[in-house]
Design a protein that fits this description.
Elements: E1 6-12, E2 15-22, E3 36-39, H1 50-55, E4 62-65, H2 82-96, E5 101-106, H3 108-119, E6 124-130, H4 143-149, H5 153-156, H6 158-169, H7 177-185, H8 193-202, E7 218-224, H9 232-241, E8 245-250, H10 256-259, H11 261-273, H12 276-285, E9 289-290, H13 305-322, H14 326-332, H15 337-347, H16 364-377, H17 379-399, H18 402-413, E10 419-422, H19 432-435, E11 439-443, E12 446-457, E13 464-471, E14 477-483, E15 489-493, E16 505-516, H20 527-562, E17 564-565, E18 568-569, H21 574-602, H22 608-632, H23 644-656, H24 661-673
Parallel strand pairs: 3-4, 3-5, 5-6, 6-7, 7-8, 8-9, 10-13, 11-13
Antiparallel strand pairs: 1-2, 2-4, 11-12, 12-16, 13-14, 15-16, 17-18
Bound molecules: flavin-adenine dinucleotide.
């Protein structure tokens, strides 16, 4: 279990304490950091915080311990009170050679941390209070939640924990109890019930309300917006009472420090590392609460628990596996096939909106939000996925016969075969409806395809390319599934794009390509059927545009909070906040519009003009938002390493593909006036 720390036993008088210390990694030229002491919640052994410790800046030394009677520390001879425990902690620190530390306390440990900061003032430099409150004078949890906290049963009985975790811990525990059960039980040294009861007794009757206004330490308060044990109002109360406090609210529950460690550790790191001067200015100028998530209207909460869980897995994959390497591929115009295809395969998200044929059937909202989540980190990966799962699989799903769907969709849903979609031609883009020049000639039981296609995403490595061609028999547009490698088929990679450089677009040449009648999509009889595919995928592109804008916004917000000019974070300047709020408004209005469009799709009510309006609106809002994000980063905005520059470049392609703004506007214009203005 211990990847980061060295474990030892420290004896203070007659009390032995199990202590874990993660040493600091010294970096030449950087001054040593103040050691960081973590005080855990009631009943919790020190191992529980391992994910958080692993995510903290390696330059910081981290000290954890099991309180008496918990984990690996034997119970004390008699009960103790909170002040006694604080004295014990002070002696433990002396024994370990620490003069002053920064202190983090979570839940019950937050009470200990407040007391320690007040009464061992010289030993505590800064204070971090997580999911905690003011003791007896707090806004209590519901009785049904409190009842579960009276005994240590959740630490001793894994099945019981899994049953109740959602209700008592909230946040991610509502949708995935496995991670929390593993964190609490896998390396558990089941503490004795006596130790747990002593902990309960230690804080009985205790409250910090009288002394919080006297705290001198700079304090960061972290609170989840879905914490059934400590309702959010408690954090707001402490924020009011502590003179130098700042409140950071995260989306999540009581154990956010464990389940959202990757998100919260940098917040804590930034707080601990900030110079005192900038902290004062942050306090004075930029308010106390920060909502850093771009899902401002909580659209994610419209998903069911399974959908939210899947979305978080997508986020984790994109942030941890794709984001760190994607600029490298962007620069080299390469697609990280071996990373992305197995990764997305494992997530099981292809064909999300379709029912049957091995597709997940998660519905349109989840499908759209996955597109947003992918684009939030990288628009190229979202485009790869949109071409495969939307355009190619969608053509087969909407226009294929039953037999064709059975044949191709399951292997495409498993991402064992990759699809592409060939409609646009070198001389025919917006005017594809009436102007396709690629021809299909019937020859007995076969079709012969001739012509050229341009811009076809995934085509350099796709297994199947859906080719749209005009039949010489009836002059109608028909769709054909052309396997890669068919004689006469050639795909040449397009180079030197300034947008979506990771997407492999190709110019396709079809020179007497023969496919059997069984490869003609049996329900595609005219361009009207092609348009049905585009109607569906344009909704996906609107979601992607929202994701691209959201990614740029979130990068810009994080940058604004740490970039300093004129001696203060630029987030505190009115004109910078104006940019941020404009971006957020664009992201939020787009997301709300997309969510409604998904509902229309789900109910079978979406028409061409609904998707067209969303595509046009969201891409315009995206283009504005990424530009503002770039502006906010100043010169750093054009450096790839800050990501926003890539969003700016990539947005140009999203703006134009799957129907330009003009074409989508004309579709809506035709619907509302009854007059076509295309020609
Ligand atoms: C990165 C990328 C990936 C793509 N991937 C695919 C793919 O996988 N498969 C595929 O088939 N295609 C793909 N495309 C093609 C894309 O769909 C077309 O670029 C798009 O439809 C616009 O066509 P065009 O570029 O030929 O522009 P054009 O049609 O030449 O339009 C040029 C300009 O004229 C305007 N215009 C045209 N007609 C009118 C009109 N009637 N009234 C007013 N203004 C008008 C347009 O809005 C635009 O501003 C991709 C494109 C890009 C950039």
């Amino acid at each position: 279990m211990f990847m980061t720390a060295e474990v030892r036993t420290v004896t203070i008088g007659r009390q032995r304490l199990r202590v874990a210390i993660r040493p600091a990694r010294n970096e030449p030229g950087r001054p040593p950091r103040v050691p960081f002491l973590l005080v855990n919640g009631i009943g919790a052994h020190l191992d529980l915080l391992e994910p958080f410790v692993a995510a903290l800046d390696p330059a910081v030394e981290v000290i954890r311990f099991d309180p008496p009677g918990i984990g690996g520390s034997p119970p004390p001879g008699r009960p103790y009170w909170i002040s006694g425990l604080c004295r014990l902690i002070a002696r433990m620190l002396s024994e370990l050679g620490y003069d002053q530390v920064d202190v983090l306390g979570i839940s019950w440990g937050g009470g200990i941390a407040q007391h320690f900061a007040a009464f061992q003032r010289a030993r505590c430099r800064r204070l971090v209070l997580v999911a905690t409150a003011t003791g007896t004078m707090m806004l209590p949890a519901r009785p049904s939640v409190l009842a579960h906290l009276l005994t240590p049963r959740r630490y001793l009985d894994r099945e019981y924990l899994q049953r109740v975790a959602g209700n008592i811990y909230g946040g991610l525990a509502r949708i995935d109890t496995e991670e929390i059960a593993a964190a609490m039980h896998d390396s558990n040294r089941a503490g004795l019930s006596r130790g747990y009861l002593y902990q309960l007794a230690a804080s009985a009757g205790w409250t910090s309300v009288p002394f919080l206004p006297l705290l001198r330490q700079h304090t960061l308060i972290l609170a989840g917006d879905d914490d059934p044990i400590i309702p959010l109002a408690n954090a707001r109360l402490m924020n009011l009472l502590i003179p130098n406090a700042r409140l950071h609210v995260y989306h999540g529950g009581h154990l956010g420090l464990v389940t959202e460690a990757a998100e919260l550790a940098p917040v804590v790191d930034a707080f601990l590392a900030a110079p005192l001067s900038s902290w004062r200015l942050v306090m004075a100028s930029s308010g106390r609460t920060a909502l850093t998530d771009g899902d401002f209207y909580l659209i994610e909460q419209m998903l069911d628990p399974a959908g939210r869980r899947l979305l978080l897995r997508v986020r984790e994959f994109m942030e941890k596996s794709v984001q760190p390497v994607i600029n490298h591929y962007w620069t080299r115009e390469e697609f990280p096939y071996d990373l992305v295809v197995p990764g997305l395969r494992e997530l099981g998200i292809a064909g999300q909106a379709y029912s049957g044929y091995g597709c997940p059937g998660g519905g349109n909202l989840l499908d759209g939000m996955i597109a947003m989540e992918l684009a939030r980190v990288d628009s190229s990966i979202a485009t790869f996925f949109g071409v495969h799962s939307g355009l190619a699989m969608g053509s087969i799903y909407l226009c294929g016969s039953e037999e064709q769907k059975q044949r191709w969709l399951p292997e495409m849903a498993r991402l064992e075969k990759i699809g592409a979609f060939g409609l646009t031609e070198p001389e025919v883009g917006s005017g594809a409806a009436g102007g396709l020049t690629t021809t299909a000639r019937r020859d007995g039981d076969e079709w012969v395809l001739d012509g050229q296609k341009k811009w076809i995403g995934n085509a350099t490595f796709a297994d199947y390319v859906v080719i749209w061609a005009r039949s010489l028999e009836d002059q109608q547009v028909k769709g054909f599934v052309v396997p890669a490698g068919t004689p006469g088929f050639a795909a040449a990679k397009m180079r030197d794009k300034i947008a979506l450089r990771v997407v492999q677009n190709a110019t396709i040449t079809l020179d007497g390509v023969r496919v059997p009648e069984s490869h003609r999509l049996q329900l595609a009889n005219s361009f009207r059927d092609t348009a049905a595919v585009l109607r569906m995928t344009r909704a996906g592109v609107a979601w992607m545009a929202t994701g691209c804008a959201r990614g740029a916004y979130e990068h810009a917000l994080a940058y604004a909070r740490q970039r300093q000019q004129f001696g203060r974070p630029i987030a505190g300047f009115q004109l910078v906040q104006d940019l941020l709020v404009r971006m957020l408004a664009n992201v939020t209005s787009s997301a709300c519009l997309c969510a409604r469009l998904s509902a229309l799709q789900q109910d079978g009510l979406a028409e061409d003009h609904h998707s067209a309006l969303a595509k046009a609106f969201c891409t315009v809002r995206m283009r504005e938002a990424v530009g503002w994000a770039r502006e906010l980063l100043g010169g750093n905005g054009i450096l790839l390493e800050n990501h926003v520059g890539r969003f700016v470049a990539d947005s140009e392609a999203i703006y134009s593909y799957e129907g330009t703004r003009e074409i989508n506007t004309l579709i809506v214009g035709r619907a509302i006036t009854g007059t076509s203005a295309f020609v």
